[in-house]
Specification:
Strand order of the largest sheet: 2-3-1-4-8
Mean pLDDT: 93
CATH architecture of one domain: 3-Layer(aba) Sandwich
Radius of gyration: 16 Å
Strand content: 15-25%
Largest sheet: 5 strands, parallel
CATH topology of one domain: Rossmann fold
Bound molecules: adenosine monophosphate
Low-confidence stretches: none
Helix content: 40-55%
């Protein structure tokens, strides 16, 4: 299974991807997680990415495309992968398509998790995570007592607004390309984690 999860910031892509990959036994490849790891390590790529990420802006295509195309050629992705947060622009979608064509692979599905903008702000500004990467929400899914959590630098209201602008302006335009191929599955992202997981499985025909 070669698939993409797409949706606005805070739609639940990361959480749902983590659940789904356990079923499919494919790596969860999150461009955001890879970039955050590079920032933490202080690599050259990380230092460049940090400036954009803090402001909720997109990291330049050339940086992200190189990073992801390199990642999907690793042995653990030979039988499939779940991309989360990539592609996010038309040039990224084109680069992925060209790379897959060259390798003789097809994408099986792209799942769009849909959540309206007004709900997104509440979700994103309340999101917290712990050192192990578990994701919580201050109201909807509080961390257990004693677990210390942090807020992502780009989960502030200001950065969230910018990320939504980027999503509608740069990421949504990739959808018609996949719709034409007949592999775009739209899923309602409002509901419990289990409800949304069930909808995704149904859309993929794997329930
Ligand atoms: P995410 O964890 O997917 O919400 O991504 C967090 C941030 O990382 C985004 O707001 C961007 O600054 C950057 N980023 C992640 N994936 C991409 C991508 N495919 N293209 C450009 N920037 C990205």
């Amino acid at each position: 299974m070669r698939m993409i999860l797409v949706g606005p910031p805070g739609a639940g892509k990361g959480t749902q991807a983590a659940r789904l990959v356990q079923n499919f036994r494919i790596p969860h490849i999150s461009s955001g997680d890879m970039l955050r790891a590079a920032v933490k390590e202080g690599t050259e790529l990380g230092q460049e990415a940090d400036r954009y990420m803090k402001a909720g802006k997109l990291v330049p295509d050339a940086v992200v495309i190189g990073m992801i195309l390199d990642r999907i050629t690793k042995p653990d992705a030979a039988n499939g992968f779940m991309l989360d947060g990539f592609p996010r622009t038309v040039p990224q979608a084109e680069a992925l398509d060209a790379a897959l064509k060259k390798a003789g692979f097809d994408l099986d599905a792209i799942v769009l998790i849909e959540v309206a903008d007004d709900l997104i702000k509440e979700r994103v500004t309340g999101r917290r995570s712990d050192a192990a990467g578990n994701i919580y929400h201050i109201k909807n899914n509080p961390a257990p007592a004693g677990v210390s959590v942090v807020q992502r630098k780009d989960d502030t209201e200001e950065a969230c607004t910018e990320r939504l602008v980027k999503y509608h302006g740069e990421t949504e335009p990739i959808l018609p390309f996949y719709e034409k191929k007949g592999i775009l599955k739209r899923v309602n992202g409002v509901g419990s984690l289990d409800e949304v997981s069930a909808r995704i499985r149904k859309a993929l025909g794997t329930h």
